[in-house]
Amino acid sequence: MLAISGIGLLTLNGSLQVRPGDLLCILSAVFYAVQILVTARAVKTSDSLNIGILQLGFAGGYALILSAVFETPSLPSTLPGWIAILALGIFCSACGFILQPVAQKYTSPTRTGLIFALEPVFAAFFGYWFVHEKLSLQGYTGAALVLLGIVASELLGKLHFVPPARMLKKRRANL
Predict the structure, then answer these.
(1) 57 Cβ contact partners less than 8 Å away, ≥ 6 residues apart
(2) Are 63 and 108 in contact (CB under 8 A)?
(3) 59: helix, strand or coil
(4) What is the DSSP letter of 93?
(5) By the 8 A CB rule, do 172 and 164 touch?
(6) How do the residues of the chain divide into helix, strand and coil, expressed in percent and rounded to 5?
(7) What is the DSSP string of 7-21?
(8) How many Å from the N-terminal Cα to the C-terminal Cα in the chain?
(9) CA atoms lying within 13 Å on the CB side of residue 65
(10) Does the predicted model carry a pTM greater than 0.85?
(11) By three-state DSSP, how is residue 105 classified?
(12) d(CA 104, CA 116)
């Protein structure tokens, strides 16, 4: 809940109103969570590298079809445009789609989701680093809540809660 509240503070406007575009982003996040859960199950029985390559291929194919239907696609006409397209295509899309299932084979879906919750925090950090964007107090509070939520989840996940009734049975058995 801390991380979700933080993401809300980072991404919603100053009045914290949810707009139609925000609802589409929430729906997208739900589908992405389903994708993480399906991938977690699939990597247990299949080759994770092949799963990543297939995911990249399907996402690229669907994007190509949808861009042809809803947009007027055109190739970049400048070298910086090509560099941006190649960098985003190779480093962001290809590495992200292919490495996620490979890494997810060795971690839980919960931890994967928490790692992806850091995405807006890193976006804010790189925005500040590269183009000197500054967050509002609301944005900094949101980033702190996301980080706090992830740290709390990791620390609380390592604690083993023993119900009091079970603890009493264990003590009686040791006496």
Answers:
(1) none
(2) no
(3) helix
(4) I
(5) no
(6) 80, 0, 20
(7) HHHHHS-TT-PPPHH
(8) 41
(9) 6
(10) no
(11) coil
(12) 12
pLDDT, tens digit (0-9, with 9 covering 90-100), for 149-163:
877 877 776 665 555
Pair 150, 118: CB distance under 8 Å: yes
Q: Is 154 helix (H, G, I), strand (E, B) or coil?
A: helix
Asked if 59 and 97 count as a contact pair (C-beta separation under 8 A), the reply is yes
Report the alpha-carbon distance of residue 42 to residue 36 in Å, rounded. Answer: 10
- The 3-state DSSP class for residue 22 equals helix
What pLDDT, in 10s, does the model give residues 108-144? 887 887 787 777 778 888 888 999 888 888 888 888 8
Q: How far is 97 from 89, CA to CA, in rounded Å?
A: 10
C-alpha to C-alpha distance for 111 and 134, rounded to whole angstroms: 29
89: DSSP letter: I
